[in-house]
Amino acid sequence: MLHPRYSLVSDLGSYIVNTAYRKQRRSAWLYGYREQIMVWLQRLPRLDSKKIKYLVIGGWNTLIGCAIFSGSYMLFGEHIHYLLVAILSHLFAVLQSWLMYRKFVFHSNAPMCNEYLRFNFSSLFVLGIQLSGLWILVDLCGFRPILSQPPLVILTVLIGYIAHNRFSFKSGSDDRTENRDKLHDE
Predict the structure, then answer these.
(1) CA torsion sign, 149 to 155 to 161 to 162?
(2) Which among 21, 61, 109, 124 would be 20 to 30 A from 7, CA to CA?
(3) What's the CA angle centered on 137, arms 81 and 122, to 5 degrees?
């Protein structure tokens, strides 16, 4: 005869009690962190945010730009200096980039010619930073040109967002409205 301590009913009862206790402990642990997770998620920018769209479209533009640079370098790298390849690929990448940012991120209705010139000016500034970084990484540090391009993306994305947001896609009417609001507040 089995001892009552080892009976099937007793084991099943303790299993149920232990399982209920573990679930209660687990849910208390999750509840404590659930509030923190919800606060953190609420602090994230919404998916319709201009910054999120800029990063998504910027990621696409980066892929296209790196593909154009890499393809051009593989085709013409033996005959043309890598910095010239970067400049030529930049010309094609900027046109594609401007169209994407104009349509999907900044939703601009400004005159295309003026806006495209401002966008090119900002992009040339970013290109100067990128070419300087390429020169430093390739000629001074000894990295290969194709491997040197991606690390510069983080820096140029930040600078590019600031330049495009505050200069390229800002119309003159926005400036007048801000100045009027500043004068009104004083």
Answers:
(1) negative
(2) 21
(3) 75
* Among candidate residues 157, 149, 154, the one with its CA nearest the CA of residue 133: 149
User: Which tokens belong to 8?
Assistant: 């099937």
7 φ, ψ (degrees, to nearest 5): -75, 160
| CA distances (Å), origin 3, targets 6, 7, 65, 165, 167 | 6, 7, 77, 78, 84
Give the separation between CA 69 and CA 16, rounded to whole angstroms: 64
Q: Which two tokens stand for residue 156?
A: 């140029």
pLDDT tens for each residue of 69-118:
889 899 988 898 888 988 888 888 888 888 888 888 888 888 888 888 88
| Residues of the chain under the 70 pLDDT cut | 1-48, 171-186
What single-letter amino acid sits at 184?
H
